[in-house]
Design goal:
Length: 255
């Protein structure tokens, strides 16, 4: 159903299982496919979300599942329960994530517990040889420091809100960075795209949030917006940029 001969896209990070799409998920997927999106990776944060996402992936051939854990859940027991499910369902999961740090909300001892649980997920990804999709709100520097110390480099920093300097430290380790449609209205994201070589970029929607317009529901078809803006910032041909971004994603997830 995607356009023949037109640009191809992979939405490497969204939340298609979110209740925001419960009333019209068929149409949302249809619009994505018509826009050239070949694969949509929906990223979960709990056991409940994982079960729902797997059901959705059963229905739509284009949907893949990344299984993660909410950084604001400080329960080691909950993390271990999700990890057992990931091991059991290994063949149905393309990545671990999103996992990571959220220093926007966490304070004091909570941050230390987040780092401990983050290390647990890095270890699991290494054991299962799966890519890691990282949440690092207000904690970009710290997340990259932990990842470097733990020595796992098959990493995608999703919607990174840190400095370009720290992003380039990640790039030096081979990390990838996915750019949401909010690049249309975020100077920080524009700076990030300027700094990072296109070979280390991918596109994500992070739907239903981080769309081109702040108050409007975002959806996977809007990765086209991300790709168009990346091409503009980089000053490269749109079709060439789209193909590089697509192949980056395909290679990283080993599709």
């Amino acid at each position: 159903m995607s356009r023949r001969g037109g640009p191809r896209f992979i939405d490497v990070h969204c939340h298609l299982h979110d209740e925001a799409f419960d009333d019209d998920r068929d149409e949302v997927v249809e619009r994505a496919l018509k826009s050239g999106v070949e694969i949509i990776i929906t990223s979960t944060l709990s056991i409940r979300e994982l079960k729902k996402a797997l059901d959705i992936a059963e229905k739509y051939d284009c949907v893949k599942v990344s299984a993660g854990f909410n950084p604001l859940n400080f329960s080691v027991l909950d993390a271990e329960e999700v990890a057992r499910e990931i091991k059991r369902l290994r063949d149905k999961i393309v990545a671990i994530g999103e996992v990571g740090l959220d220093f926007f909300y966490a304070r004091g001892e909570e941050r230390e517990r987040q780092v401990d649980i983050f290390r647990f997920w890095i270890s699991l990804a290494s054991e299962l040889k799966l890519p890691l999709v990282i949440h690092s709100r207000s904690a970009g520097k710290y997340a990259i420091e932990v990842l470097v110390k733990e020595g796992y480099d098959r990493v995608l920093m999703h919607a990174f809100d840190g400095s370009s300097g720290w992003a380039l430290k990640g790039v030096s380790r081979g990390f990838m960075f996915s750019i949401p449609p909010s690049v249309m209205r975020s100077q920080q994201k524009v700076k990030l795209v300027k700094s990072i070589p296109i070979e280390h970029l991918m596109v994500e929607s992070d739907a239903p949030v981080l769309g081109p317009e702040p108050e409007k529901r975002n959806e996977p078809s809007n990765v086209v917006v991300s790709a168009t803006k990346i091409a503009e910032i980089k000053g490269v041909d749109l079709n060439e940029a789209c193909e590089v971004l697509y192949l980056n994603s395909k290679s990283f997830f080993r599709f």
